[in-house]
Amino acid sequence: MNRFLTIFNRELGSYFISPIAYIVMAVFMIVTGMIFYSNVVFYAQASAMSLQNPSFGQLILAEDFIRPLFDNICVILLFMSPALTMRLFSEEKRSGTIELLLSYPVRDTEIILGKFLACLTFLVIMTALTSCYPIFLYFTGNPEIGPFLTAYLGFFLMGAVFLSIGVFTSSMTDNQIIAALFAFGINLVLWIIGWTGGGSDGGMLSGVFKYVSIIEHYDPLVKGVLNSQDIIYFISMSGLFLFLSHRVLIARKLRG
Amino acid sequence: MIEVRNVSKQFGVTRALNDVSFTVRPGEVLGFLGPNGAGKTTAMRIITGILTATQGSVRIGDFDVDEQPLKARAMIGYLPESVPLYRDMHVEDYLGFIARLKGVPKAKREAHLTETLARCGLTSVRNRLIGKLSKGYRQRVGIAQALTANPPVLVLDEPTEGLDPKQIIEIRNLIRELGGERTIILSTHILPEVSMICERVIIINRGSVVAVDTPANLNRSLQKQSVIRIVAGAPRDDFLSLCRSIPGVRTCEPGDTQGTAAGNRITVRIESSTDMDLRPQIASRIVQKGWELFELSSETMTLEDIFIQLVTREPEGAVE
Question: Domain ranges in chain A?
Answer without folding.
Answer: 2-255
